[in-house]
Structure formats: structure tokens, C-alpha cells
Specification:
The chain is an alpha+beta fold and 76 residues long. It has helices spanning 14-30, 68-73, and strands at residues 39-43, 49-52, 63-67. Strands 2-1-3 form a 3-stranded antiparallel sheet. 22% of the residues are buried.
């Protein structure tokens, strides 16, 4: 995996991880054969999110990048 210029938080807020999980789950329900994202950017106030597929994003104020590894680790 490419080196991330984005600061990936080791222990993101559990609510944000659950929101990111829901975003991923919804995406895969609609798009059964979709490629795996590298993560989700979640706005910490509005809780809106965006799947990220190929490059690490430039984050805006109040945004948090949650990697797919962090999302999967919190599923169990």
C-alpha cells in the first residue's frame, strides 16, 4: 500500500468507525461487485461520509480518514 500523506488516527472515535461501516455496507448492498475502497472520509460534525478508492484524500477541517483496515478490525 502507498505511503499515506494523510494522518490516519490509530484509534478513531468508535461512532465514526460505525458510521464508516454503515457507509461501506450500504455501498456494497447497492454495488455487489464493487472494488474495495481504501477507506472512508467522515465529517466529524455532520457524519456525512465519502468512500475513497485510489488516493489518500486531502482532509478538510473536521474530517477524519478511516482506513478499511480499521473498519474491518472493528466489525468483530
Amino acid at each position: 500500500m502507498a505511503q499515506s500523506p494523510v494522518e490516519v488516527v490509530d484509534a478513531p472515535d468508535q461512532n465514526l468507525v460505525r458510521i464508516a461501516q454503515r457507509i461501506c455496507d450500504t455501498h456494497f448492498e447497492v454495488h455487489k461487485q464493487a472494488e474495495q475502497p481504501i477507506g472512508v472520509v467522515v465529517h466529524q460534525i455532520s457524519h456525512r461520509g465519502q468512500l475513497i478508492f485510489n488516493t489518500y484524500p486531502a482532509l478538510l477541517l473536521h474530517e477524519c480518514f478511516i482506513s478499511i483496515d480499521q473498519i474491518e478490525a472493528h466489525r468483530f
